[in-house]
Each structure stands twice: as C-alpha cells, then as structure tokens.
Specification:
By secondary structure, the chain is mainly beta. The protein has 4 helices and 6 strands. A hairpin with a 2-residue loop joins β3 and β4.
Length: about 240
C-alpha cells in the first residue's frame, strides 16, 4: 500500500484537531492505566515552596538544670509529625447539601392622558385637534416572572497519609498527600495539600481537613469510565468557541 502525502497530511491534521492528547492513551490499550512512580513531591516540576506571613522567630530559653527540652510538646518523646519528611494522616470528610429556591414576580401598568381644551383663546376644529383632551394618550405595561432552583448534595470521605514537605518559619507544616487506587481498568487519584499547625495534629498523628489552611483537595482519575464521561477535545473546543 502506497502512502501518499495527502494521506499523511490528513493524519497530521487529525492529530492536531484531537490535541494529540488521546495519543498518550494508546499505551494503555489492552492493559489497565499505569500507576505513577513514587517520587519526592518537592522535585515535581510544578512544586513551589510556600511563603506565608509569620511573626519573627524567637529563640527558646534554655535551662541547664531542667528536664524539659526546649521545643518539646510533651514530657516524653512525641510520636506526631515534627519535621520535614515525617508522615501524617489526613482525614477528609466533606458533606455538603444545599437546597435554594427563588421565585420573583413583578407587574407594572401605567396610563397617561394629556390635553389642552383652550390654548390662548384659540378655538375651532384645528385648535381642537391640536390641543384637545385626547391630543396625547400613553399606555404601558410591564411583567417579569423568574424562578431559580439550586439543589446540591456532595459527600467525600477520604483517609490518606501525607508527608511534611516544608516547615514554615512560624512552625506550621506544609503537608502534601497523594494516593492512587486502581480497580480493574479505572485509576483513582486522591490528592490533598495544605498548611497545618502542629497543635492541631491529634495524638494518633491525624489531622482533619477543616484544620488545614489553603487546603487543596482533588479526587479524580483516568481510565475507561473517565474517558466515556469526558467530552472529546473537538467538542470541548466547539463549546468554547461557538457563540450560539
């Protein structure tokens, strides 16, 4: 079979229209999606250290004859996360429900009549036609009816371990957690990151999501089911560009 330049150009155009993103899934044909290798999150291309406004750091007083070690949060050794590289379990329990219904009805009707029976003593049919009682009549009517309904019910429950990736000057931790679960041909990716206080970490080394500042929680994935539920690149492009 001879492959002409026209046929090759058609393949290139088709690849450009599809965004070439679908070609990356060709390696998954016939087998489940590949898991991401375990790597240092601080070495990721999009990783950026955080800088937060913090008070000046003051050195802790030191007493030579004291059994209390400066900086300790307990008399005995604390098993909770305390430095970069330590693990901490993040608990995510989001239950959000909203039911809002709004209805508005507005109606307005107006009528105006204007006339001048006599104008500087002018009379007659011409003056009557110009300045008569029916020389100006207006009627207006306006009606507006609107109805809005919002119903939402969301529930996300996650439990995954994260790593302390950064220690801020005021003692707060930057925590990053990522977990991948593959069931058959569907890969689920769980990601949680945020800033936590050491005091908010419980004795069993867990932290709830509502104690995390700047929390970023993501629950998604890829696979056959995700592909079926995601519009094609061409459809997404038309949805953005088409004005009607």
């Amino acid at each position: 079979m001879n492959v002409g330049p026209t046929w090759f150009a058609g393949i290139v155009i088709l690849c450009l229209l599809s965004g070439c993103g679908s070609l990356s899934r060709l390696s998954d044909i016939g087998r489940p999606p590949s898991l991401t290798p375990i790597t240092d999150p601080t070495l990721a291309r999009d990783y950026r250290p955080l800088t937060m406004p913090t008070p000046p750091l003051e050195p802790a007083p030191s007493d030579l004859a004291s059994l209390w070690r400066p900086g300790s949060r307990a008399f005995f050794k604390d098993q909770r996360a305390a430095q970069v590289g330590d693990l901490v379990t993040v608990l995510v329990d989001i239950t959000d429900a909203a039911d809002v219904e709004d209805g508005t009805t507005a109606t307005r009707t107006g009528a105006e009549s204007f006339g001048i029976p006599n104008l500087f003593g002018l009379k007659g049919k011409i003056a009557q036609a110009v300045t008569g009682a029916n020389s100006l009549n207006t009627n207006s009517s306006n009606s507006n009816v609107s109805t809005g309904t919002i119903k939402r019910n969301e529930s996300v429950t996650l439990r995954l371990a994260g790593t302390v990736t950064q220690l801020l000057p005021n003692g707060n931790f930057v925590v990053s957690a990522r977990q991948e679960v593959r069931v058959n041909s569907e890969l689920r990716v769980l990601e949680v990151s945020g800033i936590v206080r050491p005091q908010d970490i419980s004795s069993d080394n867990t932290i709830t999501h509502d104690r995390m500042a700047e929390a970023r929680i993501s629950y998604g994935g890829k696979g056959q089911l995700t592909d079926l539920q995601t519009p094609r690149y061409g459809q997404q492009l038309l949805d953005v560009l088409l004005p009607f």
